[in-house]
Amino acid sequence: MKSRSLLPHDSHLKCSINHHERADIKISKQIKPLSIISLYLALLMVFLVTSCASSSTKPRGEGIGFRLGTTNNKTLIKTTKKDSDATTHAAADQDVQSQDSFRFPVFYQFDETLLGNWAGGTTILDISQQTKENTPPALKSGTYGDIISQKGGEIGDDFDLDGCLTNIDAFKTEHPIYTTKIDAASNPSISADYKFTSLTLGYNVYVFYPSSPNHRWATVGVGLGAAYINGSFIVLLCDPYHIRLTKEQVGGLMSMPTYPGECRKKQKLTTVNINSFDLSTSILFKIYQYVGDEWEISVVDVLSPGTRGTVRGEEAFGLFQHEFQLDVINAVMRW
């Protein structure tokens, strides 16, 4: 399927005509997170009430860990001006240009402080490196999966993303310095390339079901800390953003096939250097843990850290770091 080339005035007219049609694109069959959390907490309370009160849970200890896992990069670029809403302009998507990578196999674990037999807290130290090119333009509504389905979803049917489906108009309003370049493009949209390293120090608290002193199930918790971020990102103008409907693997142990995306005729609008501290929050979940005298083993260990955004001067572009870290299994050798 080939797209007709658009003149600049055709592109903006089409955006206006299709405004109401795009508003109808919705994400179907969403699961309410609060319902899942409420159900989990209810089940956890039942487990805690029925657990053996006389058994003393063994705390996790300091040591060196080894893991087999991946990281999925979900970082996004926003406008963060104080006098406007934080509009997202480029964001990771599971269907287009998704990227998994193996986690560094060795890590350090701090001592745990138990808060009773079924809760605890521990310090975490995490180093993460993220590199990505051709980040998909953020959509006004719906998902890339919706768009691909509307295009037929047949392998080989490549297409150019309609810039009207993205936040390109909001970008022009928030960053008028780039209006001339955007208006000169026939099918404009915003992408980004970035490369940075983050060092996070924080504290996690969590609850779990202790079936015995050495065995834990269904750990869930939250964390708060500080992250030091060093690197840069480039804000790009695409004309157009092209999607190839050919499934390809993008590395990582558990990565799913994704559609490649490419920012064509890319123009660099600005480069934002990052060298700052930021607030970091995280959510964690573990299915099972064994805590022994010399070794500890965790099965399906999930951590999802993120930052609130690093802002740059007058242009006020923010990089919001998000990751989904999954260890299929990890083991810690205690000191």
In words, what does this structure look like?
Helices cover 16% and strands 46% of the residues. With 335 residues, the chain is an alpha+beta fold. The strands form 3 sheets. Strands 1, 4, 5, 6, 7, 9, 10, 13, 14 and 17 form a 10-stranded antiparallel beta sheet that branches. The protein has one domain (30-334).
Topology:
Elements lengths: L7 H10 L1 H5 L9 H18 L12 E11 L2 E4 L8 E4 L8 E3 L3 E4 L2 E3 L4 E14 L11 H7 L8 E2 L7 H7 L4 H6 L4 E24 L2 E24 L2 E3 L17 E3 L3 E25 L3 E13 L2 E2 L5 E4 L2 E12 L1
Antiparallel strand pairs: 1-4, 1-5, 1-17, 2-3, 2-16, 6-7, 7-9, 8-11, 9-10, 10-13, 11-12, 13-14, 14-17, 15-16
Search tags:
335 residues, 10-stranded antiparallel β-sheet, 4-stranded antiparallel β-sheet, 17 strands
Summarize the structure.
The chain has helices spanning 8-17, 19-23, 33-50, 144-150, 168-174, 179-184, and strands at residues 63-73, 76-79, 88-91, 100-102, 106-109, 112-114, 119-132, 159-160, 189-212, 215-238, 241-243, 261-263, 267-291, 295-307, 310-311, 317-320, 323-334. Helix content is 16%, strand content 46%.
